[in-house]
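Lay summary. Proteins are chains of building blocks that fold into shapes, and those shapes determine what they do. In this project we predict the shape from the chain. Here is one chain we studied, written as its sequence of building blocks.
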Amino acid sequence: MKNTLIHFKQHPKYDTIVSWAKLISITGSAQIIIQALGFASGILIIRLLPVEEYGLYTLANTMLGTMTVLADAGISTGVMAQGAKVWQSKKELGVVLATGLDLRRKFAIGSLIISIPVLIYLLLHNNASWLTSCLIVAALIPAFFAALSDSLLEIVPKLHQDILPLQKNQVSVGILRLLLIGLTMFVFPWAFIALLANGIPRIFGNIKLRKIADRFVDKTQKSDPAIQREIMLIVKNILPGAIYFCVSGQITIWLISIFGNTIAVAQLGALGRLAMLLNIVGVIINILIVPRFARLQPRKKDLLKKVLYTISLVLFINMIIILLVVLFPTEILLILGNQYKNLNMAMILSVLIGCVNLGTGVFISFSSSRGWVINPFLMMIFNIFGTVFPLFFVDVSTLKGVLILSLFGSLWGLFIYGGYTFQKILKLDN
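And here is the predicted shape, written in a compact code that computers can read:
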């Protein structure tokens, strides 16, 4: 036994295995805490808000995602790709970050101009008053402004694999959010209060995140036109697709809010909370694997091995999750409360969609980190087919109908992005 242990320690891969085991255990433990806090906050909101208020909350939260995607438009992808080239230089990485932040602020204005009128229309269409609609829009602002820089600032410690401070910050934000929601929802069960309780902690987290990033960058650097041009090349390729995905990615919520009712919107949002537990896998992959993938030399064998290992892990985890949901749907739905107890089939569909999207997200992250971007107009043609084709076969005024529509689109996206990623890798030299 002792000789076996000595032989194992002498294996050339021993240090690598130990290093990865430590990283995964630390990162995984922290992510479990972070996701548990986020999940608890979400469940509190679901249980304490009236169904109609939760429907409005879901509409606003969905639009926040749209606003964030439009404000990014591929900027974070460009910053990751450019930052990976100069990550060891504080000065050059500072230039890349400053350029990305400057671009993000400009894009944020356009995002607000487009998104706010649409949100107000959807809220009014779902029987919200003008006062409630204005309060909800105002309550989104803290979270939106924090999101403008969050994803860019996180790139810096991720490239340096300085994970622990990043996760401590995320845990503190999660605790503060849970406390605020717990203190406010019992007394003020309104959608705009829930949005404020969700957004204010992100402002504090954003301030701490800047301090973490400042250790690795020269914060005195200014935006550089040459770097901006490089980032904008990626943005020009991603932006049409980002605009399309803002529509296609949220189409289930928008369709059910227009053709269905507020209760159906609330049910869809509540089920989405359960599927969000899959985020823990995606976050760990984005923190530990994607930055390393971005830094790999462009050799087919190395990149292909990394992708296959990661996808195999995701597939295994997805199979376990789907099995649990199929075996225990009633017990899992008890978490959401009695108002959502009869959604067994809808929950299975929702979790299946989340599993497929997790795989798609991995392929997108890998491709983006290498600066590989599908021709946006070709992508839009593919995805319009994936969205429009099932409309002939499903009833989008029902919860089940919009979930089937979403599942078809998710599977189509997995096929497109997975195929593209493997195509780019297989073209490389060994």
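What the prediction tells us: The two ends are 39 Å apart (CA to CA).
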